[in-house]
Design a protein that fits this description.
Elements lengths: L1 E2 L2 H9 L9 E5 L2 E5 L1 E5 L3 H12 L3 E5 L3 H20 L5 H9 L1 E4 L9 E4 L5 H14 L5 E4 L6 H5 L8 E6 L8 E6 L5 H13 L3 E6 L6 H17 L5 H10 L6 H8 L1 H14 L10 H9 L19
Parallel strand pairs: 1-3, 4-5, 4-7, 5-6, 7-8, 8-9, 10-11
Antiparallel strand pairs: 2-3, 9-10
Bound molecules: nicotinamide-adenine-dinucleotide.
């Protein structure tokens, strides 16, 4: 099977800046997928980082976001991040320009035409399902839909999409440009070739893919849950203040204390993941989500992205 899209030609004709772009063929056994364009959906904490990674790997990248302010902020922060790479001498000025020119920013779903989609929108299954179905209507039938969900069942998302065999989990870690690991999450529907292509794509993005089966929290988020929950429990029960706990754990060698890490991830995202893993594992007491975290979400104190979480973060135009 060779999948080559007609869209590839359309894009090349329509967009001047495509002159830098070479389609990238990923081959696995007999399947060759020519990936020309990657569309990243959601330009929040994760989406903007994944878009940067895709553009740096040489793909023409569409970054789609409903919220115009979030999209503008993503453009500013992405330009800053790529600029910093040039300042540090990791890329030269020509490469910097090429990377930035490969990214198209849009709030119009009609512009989301691509070979490979990576969604990083809100952690709600109904939103992800609706998005993939809309994209499936607009795109060729061979395109692949990857979800960056941290904890939702990829199978239950796939089961509600027209081509469930083309749906897969591609779980990047935060910050996406720096963290090497990508969990490639397969379901009973996933075609073997799609798993291989996704793994190859992650490698092309200079990541280390680990294939795992769809299960609550996959691997890392399942193992990491007690790190957050037990820390929140200690603070909730008044045994220790959160700053002390961060300090203590960092002094024992953890790179980030749990509260700093939750602020980086986003308290809304971390709370959604805790709730989802708790429910999928039939609500064991040891994994009960914390009321402290729920209150943070209710107050909108989501962490770095809102300027306040457990700690304050001055927002300087992102
Ligand atoms: N934050 C993390 O550390 C982390 C790590 C790995 C995976 N994830 C997962 O990535 C996804 C996104 O997380 P995030 O932290 O980037 O969230 P975020 O809140 O920072 O960003 C989500 C963005 O998606 C946009 N959005 C919502 N619905 C949309 C739609 N239908 N179409 C287009 N845009 C839409 C929102 O406006 C927002 O800007 C979630 O599934 C989360 O579980 C998060």
């Amino acid at each position: 099977m060779r999948i080559e899209t007609t869209f590839q030609k359309l894009v090349t004709r329509d967009l001047g800046f495509m002159k830098y772009q070479q389609p990238i063929s990923l081959q696995l056994n007999k399947i060759v997928l020519v990936i020309n364009t990657i569309c990243v959906c959601g330009a929040g904490t994760m989406g903007r980082g994944i878009a940067q990674v895709a553009a740096q790997a040489g793909f023409y990248t569409v970054l789609y976001e409903l919220n115009k302010t979030a999209l503008d902020n993503a453009k500013i922060s992405l330009e800053k991040a790529v600029g910093l790479l040039a300042e540090k001498g990791k890329i030269n000025d020509v490469e910097k320009q090429k990377i930035l020119q490969r990214i198209q920013y849009t709030s119009d779903i009609q512009s989301c035409l691509a070979d490979f989609f990576i969604e990083a929108i809100v952690e709600k299954p109904e939103a992800k399902i609706a998005l993939f179905n809309q994209l499936a209507e607009l795109n060729h039938s061979e395109c692949i839909f990857a979800s960056n969900t941290s904890s939702l069942s990829v199978s239950s998302i796939a089961g509600k999409i027209k081509n469930p065999e083309r749906v897969i989990g591609m779980h990047f870690f935060n910050p996406a440009p720096l963290m090497k690991l990508v969990e490639v999450v397969t379901t009973d529907y996933t075609e073997k070739g799609i798993t291989g292509i996704t793994r190859e794509l992650a490698k092309q993005m200079d990541k280390v893919p680990v294939v795992c089966k769809d299960s609550p929290g996959f691997i890392v988020n399942r193992v990491a849950r007690p790190y957050y929950i037990e820390s929140l429990r200690l603070a909730e029960e008044g045994h220790i203040r959160f700053e002390q706990l961060d300090q203590l754990l960092e002094s024992t060698g953890f790179k980030m204390g749990p509260f700093k890490l939750m602020d980086l991830i986003g308290n809304d995202v971390n709370y959604a993941v805790s709730t989802s893993v708790y429910d999928q594992l039939h609500q064991p007491e040891r994994l009960r989500p914390s009321s402290i975290q729920r209150e943070k979400v209710e107050k909108g104190e989501l962490g770095r992205k809102t300027g306040k979480g457990y700690y304050p973060y001055p927002l300087k135009g992102d």
